[in-house]
Automatic annotation (TrEMBL):
<feature type="binding site">
    <location>
        <position position="77"/>
    </location>
    <ligand>
        <name>ATP</name>
    </ligand>
</feature>
<dbReference type="GO" id="GO:0016887">
    <property type="term" value="F:ATP hydrolysis activity"/>
</dbReference>
<dbReference type="Pfam" id="PF00183">
    <property type="entry name" value="HSP90"/>
</dbReference>
<feature type="binding site">
    <location>
        <position position="82"/>
    </location>
    <ligand>
        <name>ATP</name>
    </ligand>
</feature>
<dbReference type="InterPro" id="IPR036890">
    <property type="entry name" value="HATPase_C_sf"/>
</dbReference>
<dbReference type="InterPro" id="IPR020575">
    <property type="entry name" value="Hsp90_N"/>
</dbReference>
<keyword id="KW-0346">Stress response</keyword>
<feature type="binding site">
    <location>
        <position position="175"/>
    </location>
    <ligand>
        <name>ATP</name>
    </ligand>
</feature>
<dbReference type="Pfam" id="PF13589">
    <property type="entry name" value="HATPase_c_3"/>
</dbReference>
<feature type="binding site">
    <location>
        <position position="32"/>
    </location>
    <ligand>
        <name>ATP</name>
    </ligand>
</feature>
<dbReference type="InterPro" id="IPR001404">
    <property type="entry name" value="Hsp90_fam"/>
</dbReference>
<dbReference type="GO" id="GO:0051082">
    <property type="term" value="F:unfolded protein binding"/>
</dbReference>
<keyword id="KW-0547">Nucleotide-binding</keyword>
<keyword id="KW-0963">Cytoplasm</keyword>
<comment type="similarity">
    <text>Belongs to the heat shock protein 90 family.</text>
</comment>
<dbReference type="GO" id="GO:0005524">
    <property type="term" value="F:ATP binding"/>
</dbReference>
<feature type="binding site">
    <location>
        <position position="323"/>
    </location>
    <ligand>
        <name>ATP</name>
    </ligand>
</feature>
Length: 611
C-alpha cells in the first residue's frame, strides 16, 4: 500500500535552509550518508551483543556505487534497516535524531554504543539533496517478518512511501540510499571524485567502506590502539600515511588516550621546523568517532601547538549542526588544557630521561617550547625547567643552570645578574670577543621569538636583566664599583667631543667621551638597550604599544675612549685630527655592520691615504 504525505518540519521553513545553506560544502553529502550507514551497522552489532538480534551478522560493510548512465549514486549497508514506520519517524520528522534515541535506550546495557554511533543531528541525510534531484530509500529491517520499505522524495516537503513485495522487495537486511544526481552536479558521477571525498572524510571509519569494490578505509587506525601494541615503525608509517609529501620523519610523538572527564584519543607528532616561525600546511586533523571533521583546530589545540602534526579524535567536541566547525565550550577548554599538559609532560620526560637526545633536538623543538611559554602561563610554569639557553660556544643550559654559571662574574654593583646576549654572533663578533676577554659568557638569541622571550624572562626572573653585547661599551655593560680616571681634563674632553661631532655631522649620533680602559676600542657605537629592543619587538609583531617605538628615528651613542692614545692624537691634530676622528668613527660603524654605500667608499679611500 502506497502512502503520500508531507515531511514534518519542526522549525518553520528549515527545509530550504538545509538544502542550500546549512551545508556550505556540497561534497560532505557523501560523508553524511556513509556515516549514517556506519551507524546502522554499529547499531546492529550492538543489538547482537545484547542478544536482541540473534541472526547471522554476515559480512558487514558499506558499499558506494555509481552508475553514470542512469545518473545514480547508491550507498548501501547491511545494518539494522528500517521499517516504513521507522522511516516516517526518523526521516520525515526533521530534527529528530534516531541515533540520540538509540543511545538513550541502550546506554545502560551497552557502554560502547554511545561511543560508536556517529549520527547526532538527524539532519545529515538531507544533505543528499544538495546534489540529488530525487532520493530513494530501500530498507529491510532486521526484525522478523518485516516488509521492505521504499521511500521517495524529490526535495520538496512531499514524499511517498510503500512496502513492495515479491520481486520488488529488497533481498537482504539493510538500507540502500539511491541518489538521482541533479544536472548541475555531474562532478559527483565521477568515481575518482567520490574516491577523493571518501578518502578525505571516511579513511578511518570503523566499518569497511568499498567504492566500486575497492576498500577505501583502515578500520583500526593506530590512535584507536593502545601504545603497548605499537612500535616506532607503526607511528612513523602512520605519519607518512597522513602526510605523504613530508620529506622528514617526525622528531617524536605523543599518544593521547583519556576517557574521563572527556573522551579523547589521538597522536600528535613533533615535526622538524625551519628557523623562521611558520605554520605548516600539514595541519592537525580532527575526527569525531573516526569521521574526519576539519583541520581547523585552533579552539581544541593551543595556538602554540598548531605547529604540531597528527590526529585528534573526540566525540565530546561540540560541533555545529553541519559538523563543519567547532563550538567552543567548557569541554573544549578542558581538552585544550589536557593537551597542553600532555605536551609539557612529554617534553619534561624526554629532558629527564635523555638529556643528550633532548639537546640534539633542541634546535627543532625550541620554537615550540618558547612559543608555548609566551602563549600559556601554565605551560611556562612547566617548561621553565626544560627550556634551554645556548651560548655562543654552543653549550646548552637550563635557566637555573645558567644563572648559577654566570652568578659570580656577571653581577653588577647593585647585585643584579646581567645576562649578555647576541642576536647575530658573526656581525657582533667584536663585541662578543670583548665581553669574553672580560670573562663574561654570551648567549645566542637569534630567533624571531627571542626579543619577546627575553622580555618574558626579565619579568619572571628576580634581579636579572638582559643586555645585548653591543648595547654599551664593554666596561659599562656590567657596572661594577670600580672607577677609571680620565687622562684628559674636562676642557680637553670637550674639545675631543667637538672634533668628533664635526667629523660625524649626524644628529642621530650622540657623542660622549668616557674614561675607559686603554685596551678598549677607541670609539664604540651602541644603541640604548630598551629602545633597540622595543624596535626589534615591533618589527617582529610586538603589536599594540610597540608600534610607537617603530616610528621613532634611529638614535645611537658614540662613546669615545678618553684613555685611548687616539684621543690625544685627535686633540693635537687640528684638521687632521677631525679626519682621524672620522676614520675612527667609520671603523666603529664597520664593526656594527653600519658602514655602507658612499660612506664605505670614502672610508676605503681615506684608509689608503693614511697607509
Amino acid at each position: 500500500m502506497q502512502e503520500t504525505g508531507s515531511i514534518s518540519i519542526h522549525t518553520e521553513n528549515i527545509f530550504p535552509i538545509i538544502k542550500k545553506f546549512l551545508y556550505s560544502d556540497h561534497e560532505i553529502f557523501l560523508r553524511e550518508l556513509v556515516s549514517n550507514a556506519v551507524d546502522a551497522t554499529q547499531k546492529l552489532q550492538s543489538l547482537a551483543r545484547q542478544g536482541e538480534f540473534k541472526g547471522e551478522l554476515g559480512e558487514l560493510k558499506v558499499r558506494v556505487t555509481v552508475d553514470k548512465d542512469t545518473r545514480k549514486i547508491t550507498v548501501s549497508d547491511r545494518g539494522l534497516g528500517m521499517s516504513a514506520e521507522e522511516i516516517k519517524k526518523y526521516i520525515n520528522q526533521i530534527a529528530f535524531s534516531g541515533a540520540t534515541e538509540f543511545v538513550e535506550k541502550y546506554k545502560e546495557t551497552d557502554a560502547t554504543a554511545k561511543d560508536q554511533i556517529i549520527g547526532q543531528f538527524g539532519l545529515g541525510f538531507y544533505s543528499a539533496f544538495m546534489v540529488a534531484k530525487e532520493v530513494e530509500i530501500w530498507s529491510q529491517s532486521y526484525k522478523e517478518g518485516a516488509l521492505t520499505a521504499h521511500w521517495t522524495c524529490d526535495g520538496s516537503t512531499s514524499y511517498t512511501i510503500d512496502e513492495p513485495t515479491g520481486e520488488h522487495a529488497k533481498a537482504e537486511r539493510g538500507t540502500d540510499v539511491v541518489l538521482h544526481v541533479a544536472d548541475d552536479s555531474d562532478e559527483f558521477l565521477e568515481v575518482e571524485r567520490l574516491r577523493t571525498i571518501l578518502t578525505k572524510y571516511c579513511k578511518f571509519l570503523p566499518v569497511p567502506i568499498e567504492l566500486e569494490g575497492q576498500l577505501i578505509n583502515d578500520t583500526t587506525p593506530i590512535w584507536t590502539k593502545q601504545p603497548s601494541e605499537l612500535t616506532d615503525e607503526d607511528y612513523l608509517k602512520f605519519y607518512q600515511e597522513l602526510y605523504p609529501m613530508s620529506m622528514d620523519a617526525p622528531l617524536f610523538w605523543i599518544h593521547l588516550n583519556v576517557d574521563y572527564p572527556f573522551n579523547l584519543t589521538g597522536i600528535l607528532y613533533f615535526p622538524k621546523v625551519k628557523d623562521e616561525l611558520q605554520f605548516s600546511r600539514n595541519k592537525i586533523q580532527l575526527y569525531s568517532r573516526q569521521v574526519f571533521i576539519t583541520d581547523e583546530v585552533k579552539d581544541v589545540v593551543p595556538e602554540f601547538l598548531m605547529l604540531l602534526h597528527g590526529v585528534i579524535d573526540s566525540p565530546d567536541i561540540p560541533l555545529n549542526v553541519s559538523r563543519s566547525f567547532l563550538q567552543a565550550d567548557a569541554a573544549v577548554r578542558k581538552i585544550n588544557t589536557y593537551i597542553t599538559r600532555k605536551v609539557a609532560d612529554k617534553l619534561g620526560d624526554l629532558f629527564k630521561k635523555d638529556r643528550a637526545g633532548y639537546e640534539e633536538k633542541w634546535s627543532d623543538i625550541g620554537l615550540f617550547v618558547k612559543y608555548g611559554m609566551l602563549s600559556d602561563e601554565k605551560f611556562y610554569d612547566r617548561a621553565k625547567d626544560f627550556v634551554l639557553l645556548k651560548n655562543v660556544a654552543g653549550k646548552l643550559f637550563t635557566i637555573s643552570e645558567y644563572t648559577e654559571h654566570i652568578q659570580a662574574n656577571q653581577q653588577d654593583k647593585d647585585g643584579n645578574i646581567v645576562v649578555l646576549y647576541t642576536n647575530d654572533a658573526e656581525a657582533q663578533h667584536g663585541f662578543v670577543a670583548a665581553a669574553q676577554e672580560r670573562g663574561y659568557d654570551v648567549l645566542n638569541f637569534d630567533h624571531i621569538l627571542d626579543p619577546h622571550f627575553i622580555g618574558q624572562l626579565e619579568q619572571k626572573l628576580e634581579k636579572t636583566t638582559f643586555k645585548r653585547v653591543d648595547a654599551d661599551t664593554v666596561g659599562k655593560l656590567i657596572e661594577k664599583d670600580e672607577t677609571t680616571e680620565s687622562v684628559l681634563s674636562e676642557d680637553d674632553q670637550t674639545k675631543v667631543s667637538e672634533a668628533f661631532k664635526t667629523a660625524i655631522a649626524n644628529d642621530a649620533m650622540h657623542v660622549k667621551v668616557a674614561a675607559l680602559s686603554p685596551q678598549d676600542a677607541p670609539v664604540t657605537i651602541t644603541q640604548n638597550e630598551f629602545m633597540r629592543r622595543m624596535k626589534d619587538m615591533q618589527r617582529t609583531g610586538g603589536g599594540g604599544g610597540m608600534q610607537m617605538f617603530g616610528a621613532f628615528p634611529e638614535s645611537f651613542d658614540v662613546t669615545v675612549n678618553a684613555n685611548h692614545p687616539l684621543a690625544q692624537r685627535v686633540l693635537a691634530g687640528g684638521e687632521s685630527g677631525e679626519k682621524l676622528a672620522r676614520q675612527a668613527f667609520d671603523l666603529a660603524l664597520l664593526a656594527q655592520g653600519m658602514l655602507k654605500g658612499e660612506a664605505l667608499t670614502a672610508f676605503v679611500k681615506r684608509s689608503t691615504e693614511l697607509l
